[in-house]
Write a structure and sequence with these properties.
- The protein is α+β, with helices and mostly antiparallel strands.
- It has one domain: Pemi-like Protein 1, Chain: D.
- The protein contains three helices and four strands; from the N terminus they run ββαββαα.
- The protein has helices spanning 19-25, 49-64, 66-73, and strands spanning 6-9, 12-15, 33-38, 41-46.
- Strands 1-2 form a two-stranded antiparallel sheet. Strands 3-4 form a two-stranded antiparallel ribbon.
Length: 74
């Protein structure tokens, strides 16, 4: 477990990630990260364009087939 400290960055507040954490995430300065809320707290991961497109496609399919999915869930 790593404890991170919030720090002032201009008019914003940011978190400084240790080099070891960046290496494990396989990211570097300038890369985008995804913060996801989970039942266990929050998850931080490298941004994955493919994953985002897949989630958007799944959401479209669920909206389109809402009634059918509702009946299947009963």
């Amino acid at each position: 477990m790593t404890t991170l400290k919030l720090t002032q960055i201009g008019n914003s507040v940011g978190v400084i990630l240790p080099k070891e954490t960046l290496a494990k995430l396989r990211v570097e300065k300038g890369d985008a990260l995804t913060l996801t809320e989970t039942p266990m707290g929050f998850s931080l991961s490298a941004f994955d364009e493919t994953k985002i497109k897949q989630l958007e496609a799944a959401e479209r399919m669920m909206r389109k087939n809402r009634n059918m999915l509702h009946k299947l869930a009963q």
